[in-house]
Specification:
Layout (H helix, E strand, L loop, with lengths): L5 E5 L11 E2 L14 E5 L2 E7 L14 H10 L4 E10 L9 E3 L2 E5 L24 H13 L4 E3 L2 E5 L7 H9 L4 E3 L2 H10 L3 E11 L11 H22 L21
Parallel strand pairs: 1-4, 1-5, 5-11, 6-8, 7-9, 9-10
Antiparallel strand pairs: 2-3, 3-4, 5-10, 6-11
Helix pairs in contact: 1-4, 2-5
Length: 262
């Protein structure tokens, strides 16, 4: 099987990430991934890419086969994953098109298969610091070197979708100190942690959520327009950052299962 070092999960409008690729078939205990992974080169790094919504955007956020996607990355040899996604801003000071390299999440989803460890061995993997500090550093530093506005750290609220929030919900998320909101950051990143893989989220602000005072309510048209306008910058960021990513360090990601089993 073809192998890769680094994985990327693409979101809305980001399907053609890698040119000159090899498509591979991967079997997982959790069914098929959203699409067959493709593997190509970025610099001297072998990179695997999976469009999390499928190639025709056929999987709504709550129906994405997150476990199969993450497992497929591991089967390909990937140890370090980047998960860019479109997000709404809960902070009025975040500008459209700004990138937030999150360091925390708050899960407000329900019904999603969000663990690989369903027994008989009881496993509790810590989520205190859910995103890889080394990947986060590389993304932030690279973005700033490129002149891209990047916020270092932030909390992403993850809702089930596919609907957007009510005004009351949005206000409650803002009061919970959320900075951005999306529908796919959980359980993707946490599942990577359960497999001791590094993972970093890049939330690209495509709109201001409905509860943010003084701005227009979110619409699907706004999300797609802004994402398309900024896709080039996101690709530029990833193509500059990926060659800088080294082997997985012996950090909180690689040692997640130590002491996690009872």
């Amino acid at each position: 099987m073809a192998e890769a070092e680094i994985g990327v999960f693409g979101g809305s409008g980001f399907y053609e990430f890698l040119p000159d690729v090899d498509e591979v078939e991967v079997e997982t205990p959790f069914g098929e991934p959203s699409a067959r992974p493709v593997i190509g080169d970025v610099g001297r790094k072998r990179v695997a890419f999976i469009p999390r919504h499928g190639r025709r955007h056929e999987f709504p956020p709550a129906q994405i086969p997150y476990r199969a996607n993450v497992w497929a990355m591991k089967e390909l040899g990937v140890r370090r994953i980047i998960g860019p996604c479109a997000s709404g801003a809960l902070d009025v000071n975040l500008a459209l098109g700004e990138f937030v390299v999150c360091d925390q999440f708050i899960d407000r989803t329900w019904g999603r298969a969000d663990t690989f460890y369903e027994g008989p061995v009881t496993t509790h993997v810590s989520a205190a610091d859910p995103y890889c500090p080394d990947l986060r550093r590389i993304l932030v530093e690279t973005g700033r070197d490129l002149g891209i506005t990047v916020r270092d750290g932030g909390t992403v609220i993850v809702i089930n979708g596919p609907r957007f929030s009510t005004r009351a919900e949005s206000e409650s998320f803002r009061r919970a100190n959320g900075n951005v909101i999306n529908m796919t950051a959980y359980p993707e990143g946490y599942l990577a942690r359960e497999l001791e893989l590094c993972y970093a989220n890049v939330s690209m602000v495509t709109d201001h959520d409905v509860g943010v005072a003084g701005v227009e309510p979110v619409s699907h048209e706004t999300v797609i327009r802004v994402f398309n306008e900024n896709n080039t910058r996101l690709r530029e960021l990833l193509f500059a950052a990926i060659p800088k990513i080294g082997p997985q360090p012996d950090d909180v990601c690689a040692t997640a299962l130590e002491g996690a089993r009872i």
